[in-house]
Amino acid sequence: MELIVHADAGLLAKAAAARLITALVDAQAQRGEASLVLTGGGIGIALLRALRTSPALDAVNWSKVDVWWGDERFVPADSPDRNSHQAREALLDHVPVDEKRVFEAGALAAAGGSQHDAGGYAEPEQAAADYAAALAARAPAGAAVPAFDVLLLGIGPEGHVASIFPHSPAAAAAEPVVAIRESPKPPPNRISFTFPTIQAARQVWVIAAGEEKADAVATAVAGADAWGLPAAGAHGLERTLWLVDRAAASRAGQGG
Ligand SMILES: O=C(O)[C@H](O)[C@@H](O)[C@H](O)[C@H](O)COP(=O)(O)O
C-alpha cells in the first residue's frame, strides 16, 4: 500500500489523470489493450474531467480500452445520477472508445415500461447477474472476472468503497457482483463489485479528497477489518495506491 498526498483536490485530480494515462499506455504497450474500472463520486468524476483536458490524452488508444464500473446506481438509463452517465459526460463522450468495450451495468426500466426501456431491468438482482455474466465473458480462461489494469475507487466518510457499505452483506459476498438494496447513501438500489472482483485487479487506486474522508483514510491505511471498513479491503494484485489530498491525509499516521 502506497499513500500519495497531493496539495489539494484539483491537483489530485490532475496528477491521478496523468498517472492513469501512463498506466493505460503501459498496459497497451504490454498487452495491446487495457481495462479500466471507473468509480462515481465527486473526485472520481473530477479525475475524468482532468483526463479529458490532459495534454497526453491521445497517448491512449481509447478504442482498445475496456471500461467497467465498480458500482452503479440502479436508476433509469437516462438518469443523471448514473455513474456511467456522469462518466460519459466527463470523458467517454469525448474520446474514441469502442462502445462494444464499454460495459455499463443494467439500468432500471422506466415506470410503465415502453419501447424506450429496451434493456432495462425490473430488479437490481437481474442486472447484477447480467453484469457478472459480462465480466465472465471477458475473463481469462478459468477466471470469473478480467484482470483489470486499473480499478478506481472513491471512498465514503464511513469507509464504503464501490457500493460495499460497512457491515453489509456485500462486504462478505463471494459472488463477483451483487445487488444492493437499502443503501445508506441514496439512491437505495445499486449494483456493486465485491471484494473478490476488486482484488482481481492488477492495480487498485483509492482516490479521496476532503477532510470528511480523513478518519476513514487513516483507519484503512493503518490496516482495518474490511467488514467494518470496506476501504481496508481495497487492494490490487500488483499495486495498491491511495491517492489523496492533504485534507484527506490529515489524520493518517496518527494511530488511525
Ligand atoms: O455511487 C457512488 O456513490 C460512488 O461510486 C461512491 O462509492 C463514491 O465513490 C464515494 O461515495 C465517494 O463519493 P464522493 O467522492 O462524492 O464523496
From TrEMBL:
UniProt key word Hydrolase: yes
Start and end residues of each Glucosamine/galactosamine-6-phosphate isomerase domain: 9-242
Keywords carried by this UniProt record: Hydrolase
SUPFAM superfamilies the UniProt entry points to: NagB/RpiA/CoA transferase-like
GO molecular function: 6-phosphogluconolactonase activity
Similarity-based family: Belongs to the glucosamine/galactosamine-6-phosphate isomerase family. 6-phosphogluconolactonase subfamily.
Protein name in the entry: 6-phosphogluconolactonase
Source organism of this protein record: Pseudofrankia asymbiotica
